Amino acid sequence: MLTNGPVTQSRQERLQICDDIAARLHEVYGERILAIGVYGSMARGTDGPFSDIEMLCVLSETDEPVDYSYEWSAGPWKAEVNVLRADLLLDMAATVEGDWPLTHGPYFSQRSLYDPHSFFPRLQAAAESPTPQQFKAAIEAVLVGEMYEFIGKLRNAGYHGPATYLPYLAMEFAQYGAMLVGLHHRAIFSTGAMVLPEASQLPDRPEGLDEVMRMTMSGELSEPAAIVSACERLWSGLVKWAGEHSYKIRSARIPF
Question: Whole-model pTM?
Fold first, then answer.
């Protein structure tokens, strides 16, 4: 029997904890609260017996900035409650960054515990508002800020080591390659554990991505030469893919 760390709980037990936390939030923040909701696996109905609790508490707008996270373990379970001002949360929902396919799921799906002013539909509308230009900018930022940097590090590691760095780089290539495909299709990944499997089901993937994702998911990361070859093929595939979709990797020598 597991007695240290998370223990088995039923979904009903976790929902009761959510109600208890919501009641405490009302005590602490009172009339400032616009909405309270549950997100993550519990909102999707995919939580497991050891899942943690993730909640969102939205406060009305004031001159005081609010962006606070309570995160704690009560022994047999763990919870995280993000407390944010409504306008800040709406701005976050409308922003597109490189990890958008993973971070923005909560804006599209919540289990509402309290929402008398219909804030959560406004939140989803904000998450649906970014333009194609914003997604294009995010994709180009990942191509240059992450993937171009990774290929340089990979070549350095292949040139003078350490070879022990290569498995980590392969995992980064796989993760950010999946993010690129998600951004390209504006697809939300359900959870961090499913990023690679779900990305592998999306169309129009860069050549070489499937191989690196397969190596990562299977743990076949013990052969340095195989890692280098697979990641180089992915980089070539990314360059080709970027050109096909007019995503810019190369700029002027000094663009400012």
Answer: 0.92
